[in-house]
Design a protein that fits this description.
Blueprint lengths: L11 E5 L4 H12 L3 E6 L2 H13 L4 E5 L5 H15 L4 E4 L14 H26 L6 E5 L12 H21 L4 E7 L8 H4 L2 H9 L9 H12 L10 E4 L16
Parallel strand pairs: 1-2, 1-4, 2-3, 4-5, 5-6, 6-7
C-alpha cells in the first residue's frame, strides 16, 4: 500500500456536466491521476477546452455534447465510451442543480425538473453503464450530492429534496451492486462555481456564507475533484454507500438568501 493506490492508471472514467466547475475539475484531475476520460455536457466549446487539458496530462479524451437530461442523451455517452475505450471503470454523476425558490413559488414543473436533473440522470446513467462495469475490477460510481440534501434550508424544497433522494439512491445502489461495484457520493458545501455567481457578485452574501462556514471560506471545485479521485481510486476500496462531506465543516444552513416568508 502506498500513494500508488490513489492512481487511476488504465481506467476509463465518464464525467457528466464536465464543461465547467466541479465536473471539469474532476475530469482533469482524473486524467492527471492516469484515467482516460469521456466528458459530457451541453456546450461543445467548453468540453473542447476540458478535453485539451485532459490530453495535456497525456491521457485520451472523448467529448459528447448533448442533452444529458434524457436517457437517450446518456445512452450516447455510454455508447461513445464503449466505442472509444471498450469499457467503463468510473462513473461520476455530476449534472444537477436548481435555483433557490420560495416554496409557494416553486411550481410542480420545477419540482419535477429538480428530481429529474439531480436524481433520474444518475439513475439512468448508472443503469446504462453497469453492464459495462460489472466485470471491471474496482469499478465504482461517484454521485455529486450536496449538504442541501442533509440539512433543511429555506428556499431549497426542490433542490434539497432532490439531493436527499440522490444520497438515498447512493446507499440503495451500494447494496444492489455490491460486491462488484462500489457506489459513493460527495456532499459539497458552498463551492465557488458559476452556480454561486449571485453570491460571488454580492459581497454581503459572500461574507455571510463565509461566516456560516467553520473554515471561513467557500470551497473550490478542485477540492471536490480530489474527493472524487479518492472515491474512484483503490484507496477507497473498502468504502461504499457513503456520502463524503467536503463542506468546510457546516452542520446546517441559516443563510438568508432573500427567500421571503410565507
Amino acid at each position: 500500500m502506498g500513494l500508488d493506490q490513489f492512481r487511476l492508471e488504465g481506467k476509463v472514467a465518464v464525467v457528466t456536466g464536465a464543461g465547467r466547475g466541479i465536473g471539469a475539475a474532476t475530469a482533469i484531475l482524473m486524467a492527471e491521476a492516469g484515467a482516460d476520460v469521456v466528458i459530457g455536457a451541453r456546450t461543445e466549446e467548453q468540453l473542447a477546452e476540458v478535453a485539451t487539458a485532459i490530453e495535456g496530462h497525456g491521457r485520451r479524451a472523448a467529448v459528447v455534447a448533448g442533452d444529458l437530461s434524457t436517457r437517450e442523451g446518456l445512452a450516447a455517452l455510454v455508447d461513445t465510451t464503449i466505442d472509444r475505450f471498450g469499457g467503463i471503470d468510473v462513473v461520476v454523476n455530476n449534472v444537477g442543480g436548481s435555483m433557490p425558490t420560495a416554496f409557494m413559488d416553486t411550481t410542480e414543473k420545477a419540482f419535477d425538473g429538480a428530481m429529474r436533473w439531480n436524481v433520474t440522470t444518475a439513475f439512468n446513467l448508472t443503469q446504462l453503464a453497469v453492464p459495462h462495469m460489472v466485470e471491471r475490477p474496482g469499478a465504482n460510481v461517484v454521485n455529486i450530492a450536496s449538504t442541501a440534501g442533509l440539512f433543511a434550508s429555506r428556499g431549497f424544497a426542490a433542490y434539497g429534496t432532490a439531493k436527499a433522494a440522490l444520497i438515498h439512491l447512493t446507499r440503495a445502489l451500494a447494496q444492489d451492486l455490491a460486491p462488484k461495484i462500489r457506489v459513493n457520493a460527495i456532499c459539497p458545501g458552498a463551492i465557488a462555481t458559476s452556480a454561486l455567481d449571485i453570491v460571488l457578485q454580492t459581497p454581503e452574501l459572500e461574507e455571510a456564507m463565509n461566516e456560516s462556514t467553520p473554515l471561513g471560506r467557500l470551497g473550490l471545485p478542485e477540492e471536490i475533484a480530489a474527493a472524487a479521485v479518492y472515491l474512484a481510486s483503490p484507496a477507497s476500496a473498502y468504502t461504499t454507500g457513503q456520502c463524503l462531506g467536503v463542506d468546510g465543516g457546516i452542520t446546517g444552513s441559516n443563510l438568508d438568501m432573500g427567500i421571503p416568508d410565507v
